[in-house]
Amino acid sequence: MTKIEGSFKIRQRFSSHVTRFTENYTNIIHPSLMPRKPRVDIPSDPSAEIALLKKIREKHTADGAKSPLAGMDWTTISKALDDADLHDQAADKAKRTMEKEYRERDTNMPAVEQAVRSARDILLALNADNTKALGDWSFDVTDSPAPAAKPVTPAVKPV
Q1: pLDDT for 59-84, tens place per residue?
Q2: Do residues 57 and 121 both lie within one domain?
Q3: Which residues of 22-58 are buried (b: 16+ CB within 10 A; e: fewer)?
C-alpha cells in the first residue's frame, strides 16, 4: 500500500466516524431545536431611552406592590429620570434655537465673505511689497510657496 492509499483509507474511516456522530446527534444540536434567547434592544438615543424609562416607571407605578421592579430604588431613579428629561427638553429647545440662529447667520454670510475678500484685496494692493503687514489686520499670512500640485493620473477602468 502506498502512502497516498494509506492516507485515503484513514480519511475514509475518520469521515465515517464524523458522519455517524453527526447523524446520531443532529437532533440534539440542530440550531432549529436549540432554545432561542430573545434579543431585547435598548435604544442608543438618550431621548428614546428617557422615554422608555418613563413608560417603565408608569407601568411600575400602575402595578403598585405587585410590580416585579419593586426592589429597585425608584426614588433615586425617578429623580435622575426627571433631571435627565428636563435637560433633554432644554437641549432640544436649545438645538431648535441654535438651528434658527445658524439659518440667520447663513443668510448674512455672503456679505461677510465678500467684505473679507475685498479687505484682503485692498490691503494686498497697498502692501504688495510687504504682505506680512496683513498680519496687523489679523489675517494669517503664509509666505512659503504653495505646495506643488500633484499630477492627476486618470483612473483606469477595470476591463
Answers
A1: 999 999 999 999 999 999 999 999 99
A2: yes
A3: eeeeeeeeeeeeeeeeeeeeeeeeeeeebeebeeebe
Cα distance between residue 58 and residue 53, in whole Å: 9
Element (H, E) at 136: none
For residue 34, the 8-state DSSP code is S
Q: What average pLDDT does this structure show over 138-147?
A: 79
Q: Are 6 and 67 contained in the same domain?
A: no
Stated pTM of the model: 0.52
DSSP state of 149: P
Q: Are residues 19 and 56 in the same domain?
A: no
d(CA 69, CA 93): 33
